[in-house]
Amino acid sequence: MAGFNKVVSSYEDAMAGLKDGMTVIAGGFGLCGIPEGLIAQIKTLGVSNLTVVSNNCGVDGFGLGLLLEDKQIAKMVSSYVGENALFEKQLLDGELEVELTPQGTLAEKMRAGGAGIPAFYTATGYGTPVGEGKEVKSFNGRPYILEEAITGDFAIVKAWKADTFGNCVYRHTAQNFNPMAATAGKITVVEAEEIVEPGTLNPSEIHTPGIYVNRVIQGTFEKRIERRVVGEESV
């Protein structure tokens, strides 16, 4: 990288510095908007004992599910894990620590971490196992639990377009978690469908300012569907 140009040419450079025991925050929703190539590079690196924070853990053999195959993930902080049989097996066998977090709370944990807010109160989860052991405070007669923010050693996100300065635009469902995750990493790596020159993106449409981004790489994406459902032809 030179000056403001944050583009790297290899996945090795994109994920340089990732080590055993680190925390990785990953953007995306289901298999939509996930940084496929960066996840594959983590598998290639063979790092282990990772804490991964993401809405879900991919599916068997794809997305973050790849990292379960060699038991690279020690702890998963997520909202939804129902599409991954290997995840279920490792959880039930005691090989994987799981911290289930309500979806909105998880998004806010990332956003708060990126904003430098160490914790916040939310009504979500009060009176359920999610709230056990957490501080409770009443506001306007309603109980709220204290949730701590999340930051990571790395944040990996997928953008529709990024410029060489690291400014990012996400498309449709990929706006779920990617913008929040991008702010919460000590090192944020963006895998983009298209990299453009500075000034190409409309400033009012930028979701993540380049100040949050450390590295940008051009990616190629399979964009697999989690569960294909095809309706029967009408007769």
UniProtKB/TrEMBL annotation:
One Gene Ontology molecular-function label: succinyl-CoA:3-oxo-acid CoA-transferase activity
Keywords, in A-Z order: Transferase
InterPro entries hit by this protein: 3-oxoacid_CoA-transf_A, CoA_trans_fam_I, CoA_transf_BS, NagB/RpiA_transferase-like
Pfam families, per database record: CoA_trans (PF01144)
Source species, domain of life: Bacteria
NCBIfam families, A to Z: pcaI_scoA_fam (TIGR02429)
Protein name stated in the entry: Succinyl-CoA--3-ketoacid-CoA transferase
Species this chain originates from: Alteromonas mediterranea
